[in-house]
Amino acid sequence: MTAIPSLKEQNRYLIRTAMVLHCAAFIWVVMLPQKLNFSDINTILSGISASLVPGAIGLGVVALASLFLLGIIPPKRRDQLIHWRRANPLPGSRAFTKIGPKADHIDMAELERCYGPLPSDEALQNITFFSIYNRFRDKAGVVDAHRRYLAARDIGTITVTLVPILPLIGIWATGDMGRSLLYATFLIGTYSLCAIAAQNYSVRMVQHVLAAASVSEYPITGDPK
What we know:
Number of strands: 0
Number of helices: 11
Radius of gyration: 21 Å
Shape: elongated
Structural class: mainly alpha
Order of helices and strands: HHHHHHHHHHH
Strand content: under 5%
Number of domains: 1
Largest sheet: none
């Protein structure tokens, strides 16, 4: 029986592609755009394609770099940077007070009937939500939203890690403060878009879990339908 790859393994190609594109963007910044001709652009694009081929040395370098960049930030700090909340940043902390009640397809009364009084404290909400999530984590809608969330979160994490590093290297390599600051603005914008996407996908995942739980015939002590 073939093992099903984890969600992070399914996202590996996206993460590595993002890393390669970061490298290409940095090369573009360091080398004066007006000095790049059509053949240079083709060379860069060919290099990007070659680096993603299984077994390529470039792919191994990209994999190691992404492993380092994703591991350098502690999980709690990463969640704060992606969700823009200092305390209880994960969306499960607002599952029963904000996310669930705002969704028309979630029956909050049925959830309370099946799972008992739902907590209002954010930390307890996250704990309770996680126990419910574990029962419905294999639902198609939950898996899809979770996979997309992880991809956006990890690409955003990599990008925000590069913000204080690559622009400084760009200033050192080119001496062009304006171009490097423009590049830093681009990185911050990319990180912001990834964070917003991750936030939206995480809310969607919570909604899918609560919607599935609200129509399940089984209480928390039973097995999901």
